[in-house]
Amino acid sequence: MDIILFGMQGSGKGTQGKILAERYGLKVFDMGNALRSMIASGSELGNKIKDTVESGNLVSDDIILEVVEKFLEGEAKGQNVLFDGIPRTMIQSEKLLALLSSHERDAFALDIKISEREAIERLTKRRMCVNCKEIYPAFYKGDSCSECRGDLITRSDDSNLDSINQRLHNFAVETKPVIEDFYKRDRLIEVDGEQAIPDVTEEMIDKAGYLFS
Ligand SMILES: [Zn+2]
Predict the structure, then answer these.
(1) The domain containing residue 157 runs over which residues?
(2) Does 203 score more than 90 pLDDT?
(3) Is residue 127 domain-resident?
(4) How close is the Cα of 30 to the center of ligand 1, in Å?
(5) In terms of pTM, does the model score above 0.70?
(6) Which of 156, 119, 120, 154 is closest to 136 using CA atoms?
(7) Is 80 exceeded by the pLDDT of residue 159?
(8) Residues lining ligand 1 (ion), CB within 5 A?
(9) 145 CA distance to ligand 1 centroid (A)?
(10) In angstroms, what is the span from residue 33 Cα to ligand 1's centroid?
(11) Is residue 161 situated within a structural domain?
């Protein structure tokens, strides 16, 4: 069974996804990473993506699905996949599900739920290393960067808040309907993302672990 991980920015989706993937040996398909490594490969598809990105355009759904298909036929063959960052829209969701079923695969969704208010609270408390620009979540307790020992600063300017609001708005308009669709089809597991990280993990494993055993 493949798993599609949903969660608003700030939900801890990345952290929980890593834990889940390690525990159950899932291959992670991270949208951002997949596009970057495709570009780095210098393949024909990679160059097409590079041109699109460099000209300031959005990579089309068809190209994104081509990248997913390559992944399914390559390193993910015969393995369960955890999708992170896709699908973002209803159209992407329909295309992804069609692709999965054409490869005789099936997907369940897992939604790490937090309120918009909690998301804003967490995102505005994120800190960034002044040197290497690494981002640290609100729960990171250290005073300095674990990579380069640089100082951590909060980026709480208004433009940052604007972009946070914009991203949350896009999530509500584009991605929420996808989550509701999985819910209606009885293909969704909801987890309370406002608990402490280990508690979120525990709830996730309790509710979704059976999918992989
Ligand atoms: Zn650093």
Answers:
(1) 2-26+80-212
(2) yes
(3) yes
(4) 23
(5) yes
(6) 154
(7) no
(8) 129, 131-132, 134, 145, 147-148, 150
(9) 5
(10) 20
(11) yes
